[in-house]
Amino acid sequence: MKIAILDDYQNVALGLADWASLDAEIEVFTEHIRDRDELASRLAGFEVVVAMRERTPFPAELLERLPDLRLIVSTGGPRNPSIDLRTAAERGIVVSHTGYLPHPAAELTWALILAAVRGLPAEERSVREGGWQVGVGTGLHGRTLGLLGLGRLGAKVARVGQAFGMRTIAWSQNLTPEKAAEHDVTAVPKEELLRESDIVTVHLVLSRRTRGLVGAAELALMKPDAWLVNTSRGPIVDQDALVEALRERRIGGAALDVFDQEPLPAEHPLRSLPNTVLTPHIGYVTREVYEVFYRDAVEDIAAYQAGEPIRVMPVP
């Protein structure tokens, strides 16, 4: 059996699970392969692919060019919209998934919020360059935290905001006042949330309903000093509209861990805008999460080899 481990940027996969327990030839790909022709060529002959969440998409046209592929292990929960599950099923390719830990993404959300409101990137850079204080930060106590989405992640983020003394409000398509009240959060219409929040943070699943949910009209409702934070999925926010709002300083800034295209192109305008805090989609990149991902991947592959049941991703 030949196994490909994709997008292991930090080259840590082999050290975080017992891959030696598998009777297999394993190749680790530490660099992201964007070109589809190159990817199809490099993956030729592999029976198993371990995909790091949505870093490498597997649309129908790629799956059709991989006749030897029999198993895709998708790290993370039982949902990966970047894999064409119907085509995989038609071609006899099993798609499984691993476990997941939600709290690291909530923790990174607060790292971004605090870095944004206290101007930490500029202050840290000034100290390293021999300078000292360069800005005046903003406190959080008494401010309003607006949550687009109040699921597992949103609720965790809300609790931290409340600990800081923030007012917490939330909106999602199916959120009820009763459900929000369970987390001491007030459910409000989306427009009200955008108008009143000092921090707007996104915690929604990417779907047809949420793609482009925050566009030019929504950004126009935000306070001129409000920050938009996104640790969910890039396409939930209209990136072109966001870049324009940031350039014209119609909002205070954006703290982003996710983008439309990842890795973010070197020449992308977001990289040069001063009113941004940017991280390279590391919300889930912790040792604890990776240990779950790769341990479960080994278990899935071993079960597949033995003909035993594995965590199959449901076909929509």
UniProtKB/TrEMBL annotation:
Q: Domain D-isomer specific 2-hydroxyacid dehydrogenase NAD-binding: where?
A: 111-283
What's in the keyword line of the UniProt record?
Answer: NAD, Oxidoreductase
Identify the species of origin.
Answer: Prauserella flavalba
> InterPro entries attached here?
D-2-hydroxyacid_DH, D-isomer_2_OHA_DH_cat_dom, D-isomer_DH_CS, D-isomer_DH_NAD-bd, NAD(P)-bd_dom_sf
Question: Under what name is this protein listed?
Answer: Hydroxyacid dehydrogenase
Q: Where is the D-isomer specific 2-hydroxyacid dehydrogenase catalytic domain?
A: 19-310
Keyword Oxidoreductase listed? The answer is: yes
In the record, what terms sit under GO molecular function?
Answer: NAD binding; oxidoreductase activity, acting on the CH-OH group of donors, NAD or NADP as acceptor
- One Pfam family per UniProt: 2-Hacid_dh
Q: Which family does it belong to?
A: Belongs to the D-isomer specific 2-hydroxyacid dehydrogenase family.
This protein's record includes keyword Oxidoreductase:
yes
Query: Superkingdom, according to UniProt?
Result: Bacteria
